[in-house]
Design goal:
The chain has helices at about 5-20, 25-35, 45-60, 115-130, 145-155, 165-170, 180-190, 195-210, 215-225, 235-240, 250-260, 265-285, 295-305, 310-315, and strands at about 70-85, 85-100, 105-110, 135-140, 160. It is an alpha/beta fold. The protein starts with 6 loop residues before the first helix and ends with a helix.
C-alpha cells in the first residue's frame, strides 16, 4: 500500500508514523495514521520505509546543476521541529531558478536559521559546488546575513528585495491612519518605468509623509535602491522579478502538509517531506511550459550590460 503513494505522500505518512512511535502524536495524527496504516508498526518498520525514500530525496538534493541560471529566487519558510526534547523553529531555505532557456527549476533545499549568515553561506556554497553559474539577479526578502553571503560567493550579482515584503515592512512602520494613502503612493512608486521616475516619486512621498510616518520614511530611504534593482532589466520580465511571490503556491503546498504534521519529529523528517514535494514540483516545472521567453533577455544582455549598482556596493 505504501509504495502506491507518490514520494511526497510517502514522506507525509512516514512523518505521522514517526510521531506515533515516539509517543508525541496528536489525536488527529493518530487517527489518520491508524486509518492509513493500522495500529501495528514499529520503529524498525519506519526506518526500513524511510531508507529508500531518503536516498531518492538525497539524490535529487545533491544532483549536478548544468547550464546557466540568470535568475535565482530564494525564500525561507519557518517550520517547527522537535530537537532534544524541545520544539524549535527552523527555516526551510528554498532556492528556485530560471534557466537560460526560460525553464523554471527548484535548485536546492536546506534547513537552517534564516537570520544566520552561516545558513545562507551553506546554501550558496552548495549551489556553487553543484554547478550553479551565470546568475545575474537574486530575488529574496531582506534576510539578515543573506546579502553578506551573496557578496562573498556571488560577487557582482544584483539583488532584488522582494517588493511585497518590503511594502509590508513599510506599512508596518506607519501609523494606522496613514497606511492606506501610503500604500497608494508606494504602489505608484513600484510601477515606475525608470530609476529617475522612481526617485522623483520617492521624493514626493518623503515630502508627504516625512512628518506623518517618519519611521516608514527611514525604512523607505534605507531599502529604496534594493527594492528597485529590477528596473535595470527588460520591462517584460519585471513583474515576475519584483518579488519572490512566484514561490507562494509552492509554499502553500508545503504548508498544507505541515499543518497535518504540526511539529516535525526530527530534521530528517522535515527534509524528507519537503524535499520529496519539491522534487515532484521540480519534475513538473523542468519538463513543462517555459516560464519566460528569454529571447529578449539574451539580446538585452548582449547590447546593454548591467549598469545598476552591484550588491557589493549596496552592502558597503
Amino acid at each position: 500500500m505504501f509504495r502506491r503513494y507518490q514520494r511526497s505522500e510517502q514522506a507525509l505518512v512516514l512523518a505521522m508514523m514517526e510521531r506515533v512511535v515516539q509517543g508525541v502524536s496528536t489525536r488527529k495524527v493518530s487517527a489518520i495514521t491508524e486509518e492509513l496504516c493500522g495500529t501495528r508498526f514499529s520503529k524498525s518498520t519506519v526506518s526500513a520505509l524511510s531508507g529508500g525514500l531518503d536516498a531518492r530525496v538525497r539524490s535529487w538534493k545533491e544532483r549536478k546543476l548544468s547550464g546557466t541560471y540568470p535568475i535565482v529566487l530564494i525564500d525561507a519558510l519557518v517550520i517547527r521541529v522537535r530537537k532534544d526534547e524541545s520544539v524549535v523553529p527552523m527555516a526551510a531555505l528554498i532556492a528556485t531558478g530560471m534557466t537560460g532557456e526560460g525553464q523554471r527549476e527548484i535548485l536546492g533545499l536546506i534547513l537552517g536559521d534564516s537570520e544566520n549568515e552561516a545558513a545562507w553561506e551553506s546554501m550558496l556554497e552548495g549551489l556553487k559546488r553543484r554547478g550553479l553559474s551565470g546568475a545575474d539577479l537574486i530575488v529574496s526578502d531582506d534576510h539578515k546575513g543573506l546579502k553578506k553571503a551573496v557578496q562573498k560567493h556571488f560577487q557582482g550579482v544584483r539583488w532584488q528585495r522582494c517588493q511585497v515584503h518590503f511594502l509590508r515592512n513599510l506599512l508596518g512602520h506607519a501609523p494606522a491612519s496613514q497606511r492606506a494613502p501610503l500604500a497608494l503612493a508606494l504602489s505608484k512608486l513600484f510601477r515606475s518605468d525608470t530609476k529617475e521616475e522612481a526617485r522623483a516619486i520617492r521624493n514626493e512621498i518623503f515630502q508627504s509623509f516625512e512628518k506623518k510616518a517618519p519611521k516608514a520614511m527611514d525604512c523607505l530611504e534605507e531599502g529604496f535602491e534594493e527594492a528597485l534593482t529590477v528596473l535595470a532589466f527588460p520591462r517584460k520580465y519585471r513583474t515576475r522579478l519584483r518579488s519572490s511571490n512566484s514561490q507562494e503556491r509552492l509554499n502553500e503546498e508545503i504548508r498544507r502538509r505541515e499543518r497535518v504534521i504540526r511539529i516535525f519529529p526530527n530534521e530528517e523528517s522535515a527534509i524528507r517531506l519537503i524535499g520529496a514535494l519539491l522534487a515532484e514540483y521540480h519534475e513538473q516545472w523542468s519538463t513543462g511550459k517555459k516560464y519566460f521567453d528569454m529571447t529578449e533577455y539574451r539580446e538585452w544582455k548582449k547590447q546593454e550590460p548591467l549598469k545598476t549598482p552591484s550588491l557589493l556596493s549596496v552592502v558597503e
